[in-house]
């Protein structure tokens, strides 16, 4: 697994540690869908962008 994949897995894991179903609002679901679409097109965030996003999620 690459560092980016590991970081993304850690973010997702941190959001589901309590085992509860995630309840995102419409804006969050749209952002997730956009990210998935970007990934399907091969448009990935840089390592720096991932690290910065991970820091924000941990705050």
Key terms for this structure?
3 helices; globular; mainly alpha
Outline:
By secondary structure, the protein is an all-alpha fold.
* Percent range for β-strand residues: under 5%
- For the report, how would you describe the main beta sheet? none
**Overall pLDDT score:** 76
Report the span from N to C terminus. Answer: 25 Å
Backbone shape: globular
User: In angstroms, what is the radius of gyration?
Assistant: 12 Å
Structural class comes to mainly alpha
Helical fraction = 55-70%
Please mark out the parts with pLDDT under 50 across 5 or more consecutive residues, or reply none: none
Number of contiguous helices: 3
| SSE string, helices as H and strands as E | HHH
Please explain how this structure is put together.
The chain is an all-alpha fold and 59 residues long. The chain has a domain at 25-59. The chain is built from 3 helices and no strands. It has helices at residues 3-16, 26-40, 47-58. Helix 1 (3-16) runs parallel beside helix 3 (47-58). The longest helix is centred in the middle third of the chain and has 15 residues, at 26-40. The chain is globular. The N and C termini lie far apart (25 Å).
Outline the fold blueprint.
Blueprint: H1 3-16, H2 26-40, H3 47-58
Helix pairs in contact: 1-3
